[in-house]
Amino acid sequence: MSKRIDEIVKCIKYKTVGDIATDHCFIGIKASKKEGVKKVIGCDINNEPLENGRRNIIKRGIKNIELRIGDGIKPIEKGEIETAIIAGIGGSLMIKILEESVDKVKEMKQLILQPQSAVTKVKKYIHSIGFKITEEIIVEENKIYTILDVSKGYEKYSEKEYLLGRNIVKNEHYKNHLKFEISKKKMLISEMKKAKKNEHVEKHIEQCKNEIEIYESGL
Q1: 32 neighbors 61 (Cβ within 8 angstroms)
Q2: Cβ contacts of residue 103 below 8 Å, gap of 6+?
């Protein structure tokens, strides 16, 4: 088990949990052992990782996990879980999964989201469907990960808050996250400067420069 998984599981507040795109069910297994969790439903679109997950569950003698095959949240009934965990996939795919089952999602009390990319897009999407970010956690473990602990409610972020976070744990991991984002943006500017100049490229370069200023203000 990893620090990333530990931090995800620490966020769980409710008794019934869905581990979406569970893969080998490592998050679901850890979640099933948390005090207060009564049932975990692990879902994955592919049978092979589910079978690996099933073996991991049997090996550990865990009884309160059920595995289901299917796309995203679709195998779960409306109102069946209170907390949905979606971790370790790209932000665009995460939004697609949430969009395709948005009626079910709106019945949930908590989302725990760990997108591998497009974190700002994920934040904007969850705000658009009536959720707020209770806490944002940065974890460094070979890579830098962002975990969003999300609950029902309304809030409005400025563009600066989307980049820097509002309810975010500010530690060394957070500073390293900002430095990494600055480095990425500088690299992107360098690549764009090599491209053929046009209005779109120039606009994107200016946007990246503005974002670098925001990230630097958070250090």
Answers
A1: no
A2: 78
Is 92:117 a contact under the CB 8 Å cutoff?
yes
Determine the residue type at 5.
Answer: I
Burial (CB count <10 Å: 0-12, 13-18, 19+), residue 75: buried
83 C-beta neighbours (distance < 10 Å), count: 24
Residue 3 has what pLDDT? Answer: 93
Task: Output the pTM of the full model.
Answer: 0.95
Can you tell me the mean pLDDT for 167-176?
92
Q: Which residues make Cβ contacts (< 8 Å) with residue 75, sequence separation at least 6?
A: 41, 43, 68, 69
Q: Confidence class of residue 15 from pLDDT cuts 50, 70 and 90? A: very high
> Which pair of structure tokens corresponds to residue 45?
């679109």
Q: Are 72 and 20 in contact (CB under 8 A)?
A: yes
Q: What is the DSSP string of the chain?
A: --HHHHHHHHT--SSEEEEET-TT-HHHHHHHTSTT--EEEEEES-HHHHHHHHHHHHHHT--SEEEEESSTTTTSPTTS-SEEEEEEE-HHHHHHHHHHTHHHHTT-SEEEEEESS-HHHHHHHHHHTTEEEEEEEEEEESEEEEEEEEEE------HHHHHH-SSB--SHHHHHHHHHHHHHHHHHHHHHHHSPP-HHHHHHHHHHHHHHHHHHHT-
Q: How do residues 62-103 score in pLDDT, each as one tens digit?
A: 999 999 999 999 999 999 999 999 999 999 999 999 999 999
